Write a sequence for this structure.
């Protein structure tokens, strides 16, 4: 029997160029919010209860902030995998996101620490109006041989 040959080539800190970018866009759906709550237990009323949300300054339900943070995972994965393990993620949420908003996540390699085999990816998210709704970073540890 022939052995399976993976076509993906493992990336290294040396092979990832400074300034490399990746993008991911998604329209947030009611299902996304409900499934995320079911998986994580994030059932906060502002995300799950329309009557509650209407009595807040936002006037409608908001997407869980950590759901928004997960939209950066495809961009950091596209940049650093295979070969990387995420060891830190930092996010600052700048504007609320509503169900139905289209979010575009952007990842950009901003720093490499060669001796530690680390790649730092700045992660930002924008809504359909081009407003930044999240700013952050992901620290990727490349495989240490």
């Amino acid at each position: 029997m022939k052995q399976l040959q993976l076509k993906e080539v493992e990336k290294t800190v040396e092979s990832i160029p400074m300034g490399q970018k990746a993008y991911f866009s998604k329209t947030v759906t009611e299902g996304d919010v409900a499934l995320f709550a079911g998986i994580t237990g994030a059932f906060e009323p502002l995300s799950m209860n329309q009557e509650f949300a209407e009595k807040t300054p936002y006037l409608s339900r908001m997407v869980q902030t950590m759901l928004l943070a997960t939209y950066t995972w495809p961009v950091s994965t596209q940049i650093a995998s295979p070969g990387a393990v995420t060891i830190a993620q930092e996010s600052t949420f700048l504007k609320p996101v509503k169900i139905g908003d289209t979010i575009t996540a952007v990842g950009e390699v901003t720093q490499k620490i060669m001796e530690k085999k680390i790649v730092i990816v700045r992660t930002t998210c924008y809504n359909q109006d081009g407003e930044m709704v999240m700013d952050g970073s992901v620290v990727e540890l490349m495989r240490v041989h």
